[in-house]
Amino acid sequence: MKIRVIYRFLPIRWTWIGGITIYPFICFKRSKGEVEDYTFRHELEHIYQVQELGWIRFYLTYLWESLRHGYRRNKFEVAARDIEDTPLDKYERNLKDNS
User: Fold this and answer.
1) pLDDT for the residue numbered 51
2) Nearest-CA neighbor of 41 among 4, 93, 99?
3) pLDDT at position 1, please?
4) Four-CA torsion 77, 48, 24, 67, nearest 10 degrees
5) Average pLDDT per block of 10 residues along the chain, 99 residues long
6) Phi, psi of 98, rounded to the nearest 5 degrees
7) Long-range contacts of the stretch 65-71 (C-beta < 8 A, 24+)
8) What number of helices (H) and strands (E) belong to the chain?
9) Does the reported pTM lie above 0.90?
10) The dihedral sign for the CA sequence 90, 92, 96, 99
11) How wide is the angle at C-alpha 80 spanned by C-alphas 54 and 88, nearest 5°?
């Protein structure tokens, strides 16, 4: 399924949320030029997690992890934070810049 990136996603109101992944969409609060690479990488990692597990299993497990451990210790969030410093490859850079 084609990944779609949406910038200036108005329903994101909370100040601490920079983006959200609702497969196959990655939605950001800011405009295209304002989204940092690490934020893009973080949300893109969630796309890869969904692709690996399937969307039903991912979202059910994500919810369970959040209820059990909280948002910060949710294993999917920990993995996404751990990879934030990885540079975007050509495909990912193109996805970010040309969506």
Assistant:
1) 97
2) 93
3) 82
4) -30
5) 90 78 95 95 98 97 98 97 97 94
6) -115, 20
7) none
8) 4, 3
9) yes
10) positive
11) 100
